[in-house]
């Protein structure tokens, strides 16, 4: 069962969270493997996407934001793009586009950042937008300040938090074909209720980088957690082993219906709107060459098909866009 645990260190400006994605992560992989067009992910891609998914849940859980947090990595390697979307209620979905072979021993830079063109982007997309409001997005390269490729996703995201949010952050991430897990330790912002929202970044946060001895001590303890431990140990054991000398206040864990869970937001209606945006002439041209228009969701594998009658209805009777056809979801 997937679970999320959040905690504070009593009297110290440090917070933490542990996520273990089991059923939710297995469902992401199952849907990918059952897609006849793509097949299962190669192991290095699976593990990278799992780490991304755990990290995105941890970051979304630390902000007060009604909308989607989207974590993307894209570049010029065989993994063209990897995307994780986590809603404010922790519904999640994830996918990666792979072109070509991925050897079992490929590193992050070899998968995504072959020519040092790779980027990591975090986008906050509000559920309800004001007129003209655009999503907030921060982007960092997949290399350090000296131009050297960064080989760990955790280091990329720590660099993002330091550069974009002026917050000290330590992440330990791990994933395999059964579990995607992560531990986050973060110095609390000097002002505001959250980070990742742009407006909460302050000069005080920047001035405090690296100077808090309590954070540095706890971060060192967190960084000692090994991949195998994160994947196999329960949360109680992890926290007890790492922080047995610290006073930790734990909050009610999110499990069951409130836990992170796989849910895809694709729908026949959304696909219909996309088809309409192509224009009647383009749609008719496509249907002159094939029996129907088929759109496959990259996140969940659902197939949405529109035959000539379905397509014609999109341009004549909007009321039937959702209910028309035999493949409604």
Give an overview in words:
This protein has eleven helices and 14 strands. By secondary structure, it is an alpha+beta fold. The chain has two domains: 3-262, Hsp33 domain (3-Layer(bab) Sandwich), CATH 3.55.30; 268-320, Alpha-Beta Complex (CBS domain Like). A hairpin with a 6-residue loop joins strand 13 and strand 14 (303-306). The chain is globular. Mean pLDDT is 85; it is low at 319-329.
Strand content: 25-35%
- Second CATH tier, the architecture of the largest domain: 3-Layer(bab) Sandwich
Task: Give the structural class.
Answer: alpha+beta
What's the overall geometry?
Answer: globular
Mean pLDDT: 85
- Please report the first level of CATH classification, the CATH class of the largest domain: Alpha Beta
Radius of gyration, whole Å: 22 Å
Low-confidence stretches: 319-329
Biggest sheet character: 6 strands, antiparallel
Q: What sequence of helices (H) and strands (E) makes up the elements? A: EEHHEEEHEEHEEHHHHEEEHHEEH
Query: How many strands?
Result: 14
CATH-derived topology of the largest domain: Hsp33 domain
Put simply, the count of helices is: 11
Quote the distance from N terminus to C terminus. 27 Å
**CATH evolutionary superfamily of the largest domain:** Hsp33 domain
Q: What is the count of distinct domains?
A: 2
- How helix-rich are the residues, as a percent range? 25-40%
């Amino acid at each position: 069962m997937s679970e999320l645990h959040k905690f504070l260190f009593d009297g110290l400006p440090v917070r933490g969270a542990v996520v273990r994605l089991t059923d939710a992560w297995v469902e992401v992989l199952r849907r990918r493997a059952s897609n006849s067009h793509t097949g299962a992910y190669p192991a290095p891609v699976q593990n990278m996407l799992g780490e991304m998914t755990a990290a995105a849940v941890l970051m979304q859980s630390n902000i007060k934001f009604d909308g989607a947090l989207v974590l993307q990595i894209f570049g010029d390697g065989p993994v063209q793009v990897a995307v994780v979307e986590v809603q404010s209620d922790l519904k999640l979905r994830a996918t990666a586009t792979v072109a070509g072979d991925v050897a079992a021993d490929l590193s992050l830079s070899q998968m995504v950042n072959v020519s040092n063109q790779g980027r990591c982007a975090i986008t906050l997309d509000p559920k309800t937008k004001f007129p003209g409001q655009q999503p907030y997005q921060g982007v960092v390269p997949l290399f350090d300040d000296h131009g050297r490729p960064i080989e760990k996703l955790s280091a990329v995201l720590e660099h993002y938090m330091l550069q974009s949010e002026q917050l000290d952050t330590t992440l330990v991430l791990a994933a395999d074909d059964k579990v995607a897990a992560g531990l986050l330790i973060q110095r609390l912002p000097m002002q505001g209720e959250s980070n990742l929202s742009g407006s909460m970044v302050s000069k005080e946060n920047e001035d405090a980088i690296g100077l808090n001895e309590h954070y540095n001590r706890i971060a060192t303890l967190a960084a000692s957690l090994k991949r195998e431990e994160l994947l196999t140990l329960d949360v109680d054991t992890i926290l007890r082993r790492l922080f047995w000398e610290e006073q930790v206040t734990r909050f009610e864990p999110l499990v069951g219906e409130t836990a992170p869970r796989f849910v895809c937001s694709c729908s026949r209606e959304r696909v219909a709107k996309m088809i309409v945006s192509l224009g009647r002439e383009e749609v008719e041209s496509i249907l002159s060459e094939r029996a129907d228009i088929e759109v496959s969701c990259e996140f969940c594998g659902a197939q949405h098909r529109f035959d000539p009658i379905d397509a014609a209805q999109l341009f004549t009777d909007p009321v039937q866009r959702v209910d028309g056809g035999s493949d409604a979801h």
